[in-house]
C-alpha cells in the first residue's frame, strides 16, 4: 500500500510526504516488566498518526520513547533520516518536537499568555541581565515572540482568557492552552497525549477541529494517543494499535477497524 | 465648543455631502490624521486614520470594479463587526452597488431567503463558516458570481475560481488603479442624494423579513439631526459590537461616524466584548436592554460573592444613588449634604463600578430595540451614567423619538427627534413622518403601500400616547399585542414581562391572557444567575432542563412572580394582568427555533402556537404537563427534547374595581 519514500494521498485529498520518524524494533523494559515489545512503525510528514490501545498497552511509554524521555533498551529511533542518539529533553525540543501531557502540566499561577510564552523559550537568546532590564535584544525578542504567540492565541480562539490565570480555567480550556504552548514552539512533530481525556462531547468536538486545523494550516505532523475510538477514527490518517506492549495492528482507520485482533483486544475474547 | 466641533457642524444642510463616499473624502482631507477605526488584533489595538481608511476603501472599490461589479448590483456582507466589513459597504456604494448586511448568526435556510430576495451577486464573508453557508445556499439560488472573505483561515483548500480573499482583491484594485481610476471617479460623481445607501432586512416578529431600502438622504439627514441633538463631536469613541445587519449599527457606526468623523472601535471577538469595552471606555454607547440587564445581573452576582463589608458599602451607597443620583444627572436641585454623600459614594462605589463596566468616559448613550425595565434604567442613571431611551425603527432610519438631556424618564421614550412629526390615530397606533422615512420595501409594493401612505406617514404598529404636559411619547405595547381581557380590562403583556425580567433570575417571560379571564406566563430562567445561586447553595444539577425544574428554583421564581403581581396590582389600569399560573420552560427561547427574533424580541404568535399544549394545561388546572419540543441546532440540524413541566400557582392581589371605559 505504501511506497517507502514517496508518501501517499489521503481520502480527503491531502498529500502526505516521506517518513519523518521511524521506530525500528523498539523494546522498552522497566526491570522485569516489558512495556514495549519489538515494535516498528513510521510517522510521515503532514499526517495525523494515532496510537491506540486498551489501558496499560504501552501507549504513553511509546510516546515517551518518541519524545526522547525514555531510551529503549533495544531498537533504534530514526528522525529525519538520522539515527537519534540518547538525548536530553531540551535537545529533543530543539529538534522540533513538542508535546502536551495527559495530566495537564501548565504553570497554574501564571496567565494563559505567560504560559504560552514559555513555549517560545527556544527562540529567545537574550541573557538574564538583558531580560531583567528589558533593553535592546530582550525587548526586541519579546515583541517578536509575543506576536507569534498572539497568532496562536487567535488561532485557538482563546483571546478572551489571555490574561486569566490558568488555575481559574475549566479543564477543557486548560487542554487548549497546553496545545497553544506546544504550538508556540512551532514544532515539526507534535505529540498529543490523550488530548480529549475527560472532556465532554462539545469540548471533544472543539479539540478535534483544532487538531485538524493545526495540521491543515501549519502542516504540522501530529502523533496522538487517544482512548476515544470515535475521535481517533475520524481524525487520524493511520493508526497503530497496541496491546500488552505489542503492535497488533497498523493501517488506515478502516483497516484497523476490521482487524480481528484489534476487535478482540478491545472487546475481549473468551479464553478456553 | 472647540474648533473640531464647528468643523463637523459647519457643513450642515448636507451642503455637497450627498453620500458616504463624499463624507469619507471630507474626513480624509480635513482631518486625515485622526483615528477612524480601531480593531483589536493579536492583542493590540490596531488603528487606521481617516486618510488610511480612505485609501483602503478606494482600493476595495477598485477591486470591485476589477471583479466587474455593476451599478445597482447588491453586495451582501456577512460577518462580525470588523473595519474591513464596514469598508466593504462604503466601497460598494462607491461603485454604485447596494450593500446588504446580513445577520451572521442566521442559519443557512434563513439566509437563503434573504439572499434570493435581494439577488446578491457578490458576497463578502467574514470567515470560513459564512463561506460554507453561502456555498450551501448557492446550490439552491445559483446567483452568486463571486465570494470574498476576510479571514483566510481554513480557506486554502476551497475552489478559488469564484472566490478570493478580500485582501487580494484590494491588492488587484491597487495594481490596476491607472486603468480603473477614471471609471471609479465617474461612478462616485454619479451618486445622488436619492440613490440607495443601504438595504437592511427587518427581522420581523411576524412573517418573512422585508428589505428596507434607505437612501443617502435618509441616512445622512438622520445622522446629522441626531448628531446635532446630542452634540456629538469628532472626539467620540464608540464600540461597534451590535449586529451589522441592524439599522442602529449602520447609523451609529457608519452614518454618524462619517458625519461627525469619530472613531469606531471593533472588539477582538464576541467573547472579549466586555474586556474591550472596558479598554476603550466609549464616550457614546448604545445597547439593547439585554446588554444592560446582563451587566446588572453580573454585578449583582459578584456582589453576592463579595465580602460583607463591601456588600454593605455597596448596598448603602446604591440606596443613596437611587434617591439622588438621577436627579443630580438631570440637573435638578439636590441638597448639599446629599451631594456630598453622593460625591463620597462616587469615590468609593460608583466610580470603581463604572470603571469595571467600561462606562467611566460615558457621555451619552442609548438603549433601544425594546423597552427597558425601569429598575434597570434607574440603576444606570443613578450611577451618573447618562443613559437615555430612544424609540425608532428600521423604516425611520432609527430615530422617531429621543429623550433630551435633563428630561429622561424610564416610562417614556422622549420627544419627537428633530424634523420628525408624530401623530396618534384613533386606534392608538403611532404614525410618523420624517426625512428618515424609508424609500420602500424591496420588491414588495403591497407592504410598502400598507405601511407608508401617500403623504409619507408611516404606521409603526406600536400603540402609545403623547403625555399631556411634557409632550413625551409613551409606548404601551405592540398595537397588535395589546388586547382586552374577558372582563374588558386592558391586556398589555410587555408591561408585566418587563417587570418579571428585572429579576436577575429571569431571562425571558411571555404573558398570555388576551380574551381570557386571567393571565398565565412562560418563564425562562437565566442560567448564569441561577447557576451561580445553585453553586452557592450546593444544589447539584446536570443540565439547563434539570435546573429549570428544580423545586427550589421554582420556589424562588414563584416568589418573584408574586412580587410582580403586587406591583402590577398597584396600577389600576393593568391590575387584570397579574399572573395566576406559570411554567418555567425547559429550554431557552431561541432565535434558531424562530421563537425570538435575531434582535431578541419574542415572536408571541409563534410561541403561542408552538407551545399550545402547555398553555392549555395552564388554563385547565392540571398541575403537570408533558411535552415534546423540536429544537434546531446551530448547524441547522433538528432534534427534540421531552420534558414534564410542573405548573406553578402564584398568589394574586384582589383586582381593583377599575375598568377601562370601552372605546
TrEMBL record, chain A:
The record lists the organism as Ruegeria marina
Q: Name one GO molecular function term.
A: ATP hydrolysis activity
What's the short name of a Pfam family annotated to this entry?
ABC_tran
What GO cellular-component annotations does this UniProt entry give? plasma membrane
Q: Which residues form the ABC transporter domain?
A: 21-269
Entry annotated with the keyword Nucleotide-binding: yes
Q: Which UniProt keywords apply?
A: ATP-binding, Nucleotide-binding, Transport
Gene3D superfamilies found in the cross-reference section: P-loop containing nucleotide triphosphate hydrolases (3.40.50.300)
Which superkingdom?
Bacteria
Q: What is this protein called?
A: Amino acid/amide ABC transporter ATP-binding protein 1, HAAT family
The answer to whether the entry has keyword Kinase is no
UniProtKB/TrEMBL annotation, chain B:
- The AMP-dependent synthetase/ligase domain, residue ranges: 25-442
**Protein name, please?**
Long-chain acyl-CoA synthetase
Q: Gene Ontology terms, cellular component aspect?
A: membrane
Taxonomy, superkingdom: Bacteria
**Which InterPro entries does the entry mention?**
AMP-binding_CS (IPR020845), AMP-dep_synth/lig_dom (IPR000873), ANL_N_sf (IPR042099)
Name the UniProt key words of this record, in alphabetical order: Fatty acid metabolism, Ligase, Lipid metabolism
Transmembrane residue ranges: none
Pfam families reported in the protein's UniProt record: AMP-binding, AMP-binding_C_3
Instruction: Give the molecular function GO annotations.
Output: long-chain fatty acid-CoA ligase activity
Q: Which PANTHER family match?
A: AMP-DEPENDENT SYNTHETASE_LIGASE DOMAIN-CONTAINING PROTEIN, LONG-CHAIN-FATTY-ACID--COA LIGASE
Amino acid at each position: 500500500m505504501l511506497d517507502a519514500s514517496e508518501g501517499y494521498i489521503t481520502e480527503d485529498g491531502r498529500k502526505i510526504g516521506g517518513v519523518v520518524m521511524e521506530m525500528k524494533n523498539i523494546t522498552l523494559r522497566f526491570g522485569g516488566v516489558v512495556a514495549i515489545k519489538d515494535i516498528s512503525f513510521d510517522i510521515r510528514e503532514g499526517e495525523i498518526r494515532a496510537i491506540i490501545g486498551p489501558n496499560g498497552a504501552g501507549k504513553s511509554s511509546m510516546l515517551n520513547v518518541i519524545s526522547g524521555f525514555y531510551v529503549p533498551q533495544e531498537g533504534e529511533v530514526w528522525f529525519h533520516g538520522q539515527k537519534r542518539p540518547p538525548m536530553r529533553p531540551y535537545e529533543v525540543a530543539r529538534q522540533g518536537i513538542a508535546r502536551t501531557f495527559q495530566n495537564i502540566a501548565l504553570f497554574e499561577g501564571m496567565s494563559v499568555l505567560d504560559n504560552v510564552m514559555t513555549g517560545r523559550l527556544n527562540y529567545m537568546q537574550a541573557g538574564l541581565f538583558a531580560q531583567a532590564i528589558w533593553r535592546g535584544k530582550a525587548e526586541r525578542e519579546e515583541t517578536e515572540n509575543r506576536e507569534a504567540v498572539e497568532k496562536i492565541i487567535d488561532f485557538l480562539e482563546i483571546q478572551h482568557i489571555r490574561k486569566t490565570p490558568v488555575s481559574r480555567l475549566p479543564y477543557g480550556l486548560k487542554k487548549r492552552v497546553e496545545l497553544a504552548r506546544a504550538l508556540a514552539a512551532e514544532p515539526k512533530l507534535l505529540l498529543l497525549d490523550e488530548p480529549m481525556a475527560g472532556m465532554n462531547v462539545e469540548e471533544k468536538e472543539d479539540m478535534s477541529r483544532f487538531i485538524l486545523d493545526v495540521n491543515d494550516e501549519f502542516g504540522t505532523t501530529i502523533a496522538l494517543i487517544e482512548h476515544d475510538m470515535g475521535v481517533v477514527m475520524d481524525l487520524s490518517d493511520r493508526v497503530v494499535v497496541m496491546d500488552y506492549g505489542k503492535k497488533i495492528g497498523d493501517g488506515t482507520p478502516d483497516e484497523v477497524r476490521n482487524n480481528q485482533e484489534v476487535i478482540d483486544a478491545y472487546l475481549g475474547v473468551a479464553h478456553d | 465648543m472647540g474648533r473640531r466641533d464647528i468643523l463637523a457642524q459647519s457643513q450642515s444642510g448636507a451642503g455637497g455631502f450627498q453620500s458616504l463616499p463624499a463624507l469619507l473624502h471630507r474626513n480624509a482631507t480635513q482631518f486625515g490624521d485622526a483615528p477612524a477605526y480601531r480593531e483589536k488584533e493579536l492583542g493590540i489595538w490596531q488603528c487606521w486614520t481617516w486618510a488610511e481608511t480612505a485609501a483602503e476603501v478606494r482600493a476595495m472599490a477598485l477591486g470591485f470594479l476589477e471583479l466587474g461589479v455593476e451599478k445597482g448590483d447588491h453586495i451582501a456582507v456577512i460577518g462580525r463587526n470588523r473595519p474591513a466589513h464596514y469598508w466593504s459597504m462604503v466601497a460598494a456604494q462607491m461603485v454604485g452597488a447596494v450593500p446588504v448586511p446580513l445577520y451572521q448568526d442566521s442559519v443557512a435556510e434563513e439566509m437563503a431567503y434573504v439572499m434570493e430576495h435581494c439577488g446578491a451577486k457578490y458576497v463578502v464573508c467574514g470567515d470560513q463558516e459564512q463561506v460554507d453557508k453561502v456555498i450551501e445556499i448557492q446550490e439552491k439560488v445559483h446567483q452568486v458570481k463571486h465570494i470574498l472573505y476576510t479571514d483566510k483561515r481554513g480557506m486554502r483548500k476551497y475552489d478559488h475560481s469564484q472566490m478570493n480573499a478580500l485582501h487580494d482583491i484590494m491588492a488587484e484594485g491597487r495594481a490596476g488603479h491607472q486603468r480603473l481610476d477614471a471609471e471609479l471617479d465617474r461612478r462616485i460623481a454619479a451618486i445622488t442624494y436619492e440613490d440607495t445607501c443601504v438595504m437592511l432586512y427587518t427581522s420581523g416578529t411576524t412573517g418573512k423579513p422585508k428589505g428596507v431600502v434607505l437612501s443617502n438622504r435618509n441616512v445622512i439627514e438622520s445622522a446629522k439631526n441626531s448628531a446635532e441633538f446630542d452634540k456629538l463631536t469628532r472626539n467620540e469613541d464608540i464600540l461597534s459590537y451590535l449586529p451589522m445587519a441592524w439599522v442602529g449599527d449602520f447609523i451609529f457606526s457608519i452614518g454618524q461616524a462619517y458625519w461627525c468623523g469619530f472613531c469606531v472601535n471593533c472588539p477582538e471577538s464576541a467573547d472579549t466584548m466586555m474586556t474591550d469595552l472596558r479598554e476603550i471606555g466609549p464616550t457614546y454607547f448604545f445597547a439593547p436592554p439585554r446588554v444592560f440587564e446582563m451587566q446588572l445581573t453580573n454585578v449583582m452576582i459578584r456582589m453576592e460573592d463579595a465580602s460583607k463589608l463591601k456588600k454593605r458599602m455597596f448596598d448603602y451607597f446604591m440606596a443613596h444613588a437611587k434617591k439622588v443620583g438621577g436627579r443630580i444627572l438631570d440637573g435638578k436641585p439636590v441638597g448639599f449634604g446629599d451631594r456630598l454623600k453622593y460625591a463620597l459614594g462616587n469615590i468609593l462605589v460608583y466610580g470603581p463600578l463604572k470603571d469595571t463596566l467600561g462606562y467611566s468616559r460615558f457621555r451619552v448613550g442609548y438603549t433601544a430595540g425594546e423597552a427597558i425595565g425601569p429598575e434597570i434604567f434607574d440603576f444606570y442613571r443613578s450611577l451618573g451614567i447618562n443613559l437615555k431611551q430612544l424609540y425608532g425603527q428600521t423604516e425611520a432610519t432609527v430615530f422617531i423619538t429621543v429623550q433630551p438631556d435633563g428630561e429622561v424618564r424610564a416610562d417614556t421614550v422622549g420627544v419627537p427627534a428633530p424634523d420628525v412629526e408624530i401623530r396618534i390615530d384613533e386606534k392608538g397606533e403611532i404614525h410618523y413622518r420624517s426625512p428618515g422615512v424609508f424609500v420602500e420595501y424591496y420588491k414588495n409594493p403591497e407592504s410598502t403601500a400598507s405601511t407608508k401612505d401617500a403623504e409619507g406617514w408611516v404606521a409603526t404598529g406600536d400603540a402609545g400616547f403623547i403625555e399631556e404636559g411634557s409632550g413625551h411619547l409613551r409606548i404601551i405595547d405592540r398595537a397588535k399585542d395589546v388586547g382586552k381581557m374577558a372582563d374588558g380590562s386592558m391586556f398589555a403583556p410587555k408591561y408585566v414581562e418587563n417587570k418579571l425580567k428585572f429579576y436577575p433570575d429571569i431571562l425571558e417571560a411571555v404573558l398570555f391572557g388576551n380574551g381570557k379571564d386571567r393571565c398565565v406566563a412562560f418563564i425562562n430562567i437565566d442560567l448564569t444567575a441561577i447557576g451561580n445561586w445553585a453553586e452557592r447553595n450546593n444544589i447539584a444539577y446536570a443540565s439547563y432542563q434539570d435546573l429549570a425544574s428544580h423545586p427550589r428554583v421554582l420556589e424562588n421564581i414563584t416568589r418573584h412572580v408574586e412580587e410582580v403581581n403586587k406591583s402590577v396590582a398597584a396600577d389600576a389600569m393593568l391590575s387584570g394582568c397579574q399572573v395566576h399560573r406559570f411554567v418555567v420552560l425547559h429550554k431557552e427561547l431561541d432565535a434558531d427555533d424562530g421563537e425570538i427574533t435575531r434582535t431578541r424580541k419574542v415572536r408571541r404568535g409563534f410561541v403561542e402556537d408552538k407551545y399550545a399544549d402547555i398553555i392549555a394545561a395552564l388554563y385547565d388546572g392540571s398541575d403537570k404537563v408533558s411535552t415534546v419540543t423540536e429544537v434546531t441546532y446551530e448547524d441547522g440540524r433538528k432534534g427534540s427534547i421531552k420534558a414534564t413541566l410542573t405548573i406553578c400557582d402564584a398568589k394574586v392581589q384582589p383586582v381593583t374595581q377599575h375598568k377601562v371605559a370601552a372605546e
